[in-house]
Design brief:
Blueprint lengths: L11 H12 L1 E2 L7 E8 L2 H12 L10 E9 L2 E11 L2 H13 L5 E4 L1
Antiparallel strand pairs: 1-3, 2-4, 2-5, 3-4
Organism: Methyloraptor flagellatus
GO molecular function, one term: peptidoglycan binding
InterPro entries: SPOR-like_dom, SPOR-like_sf
């Protein structure tokens, strides 16, 4: 019997999301509760484009979620996070991430 490894290799976007979560000082957004992050970019336009692409991907868990960008400082460099807020709990945020990952989006659930 032949087995195929279906585990996706980590990408640069995984690295950016992981590093962003671990080392970047946030700028207060005013949003609290469970949210998801689908990337961190060097421009607001790139972050907004990723949000728009996620919205049009047909992920039902995003129907009532609010897409937004959040600027943060990393040293002297500005990054812009692409996020969705408005999830009832951790399970809802994780479900959204699972659906997005099936459509080749990077995603992490966060509580703020």
């Amino acid at each position: 019997m032949e087995y195929t490894n279906t585990t996706r290799a980590p990408s640069k976007a995984d690295d950016v999301v992981r590093k962003d979560r671990d080392t970047v000082a946030p700028i207060a957004s005013g949003r609290t509760g469970w949210m998801i992050q689908i990337g961190a970019f060097d421009s607001k336009g790139a972050a907004e484009a990723r949000i728009d692409k996620a919205k049009s991907a047909g992920v039902r868990e995003l129907a009532r979620a609010e897409g937004f960008t959040e600027t943060a400082a990393k040293g002297g460099t500005k990054i812009v996070r692409a996020r969705f807020a408005g999830f009832a709990d951790q399970n809802a945020a994780n479900a959204a991430c699972s659906s997005l990952k099936r459509k080749d989006f990077e995603c992490i659930a966060l509580r703020q």
